[in-house]
TrEMBL record:
Residues 272-314 form the CUE domain. Belongs to the AUP1 family. Residues 1-20 form the signal peptide. It holds the Pfam family CUE. This is Lipid droplet-regulating VLDL assembly factor AUP1. It comes from Probosciger aterrimus (Palm cockatoo). The lineage of its organism: Eukaryota, Metazoa, Chordata, Craniata, Vertebrata. It is found in: Endoplasmic reticulum membrane; Lipid droplet.
Amino acid sequence: GLCLLVLRLFIGVHVFLVSCALPDSVLRRFIVRVMCSVLGLCVQQSDPRLRDAGVRVYIANHVTQFDHNVINLLTSCNTPALNSAPGFICWSRGFMELGVSGSRAELVDSLKAYSSHRGNPPLLLFPEEAATNGRAGLLHFSSWPFSVSDVVQPVALQVLRPLVTVSVADSSWIAELLWTFFVPFTVYQVRWLPSVPRRMEEPSEDFALRVQELLAVELGVVSTRLTAADRTEHMKRLRHTSLLPFAPASSQALAARRQVPSGLAGAPEDERIGAMAQQVKEVLPHVPLEVIRIDLAQTNCVDTTIANLLEGRVSFFPDSKEAGTDLPALATSQAPAASGIQGSAAESSSKAAAKQFAKSPVERHLSLQERKRALYDYARR
């Protein structure tokens, strides 16, 4: 692997120089594609005759940091730079700089003006806005790419790589490139789907959902409602959980859950925070409601707020009417009747741990962890 990495680094420099020197043409794409196969990038496409020459926008799922480069080896297309800073790095990675740094509306207007010129290559857009491994499901498609044109062509992209995961969350494009050079080969499979026109008076949100369902069926995965922002928040919670010094074993399961309950996803901000605060209040009745709301505004997650309050990262004065209440007993008494047996077991173990003050610090720490684990179990229910 190390020998391949060093050798392919030198070959990769030559591939970059050749791609910069030659103009965009069929000959250039053929030469660069052959040289990329030496680098371990094998590109396969099925049904190339389905590619519509009149379509101005290609819609593809996002798997790696080099999806646009791979599809550009098959046909001429441009991908606008959304998250990359303009400059040499952005240009060398193959992104198109539009000079738009404002809102999504300004970006859409700029892309519409670009597509109106028939001499420009088609646009390649990734509505997921974040890369995934492509094995479980598709992130929720943003609607703005479907406002550029009334006809789009979906492109199903799958990546196979031996021994190493195709896409690792939070990894940089440099790390992805080095892993690509390290492993023997990486196979990109591109499948062109028939063009999809917009229906009469169809909103962009419905148009995006319809194309997302088509791509999910073609790839054999699930079409989810999780967005790129949910993915980013999930990774933050995973990093936060890994830094907790005495996190319980169930914290990994808590971190895997979505931070916003599904029933509150579309609710207004104040209503959603208020409903989440009531959930925390049921678990920790002695914590003032205003303290809970302030922390929820920062974490946007019921589980993280409970962890912050239990670990002492948020300071507060207990409510006077709840200060003398036995915390685990109250939490257990509010549990559903179906889980009464488990609640009684957690209550009895927590009371026994609270009444007996252990002599050694280790035993006192275990007693605290048992009470916290009982609260975590109730929070998960």
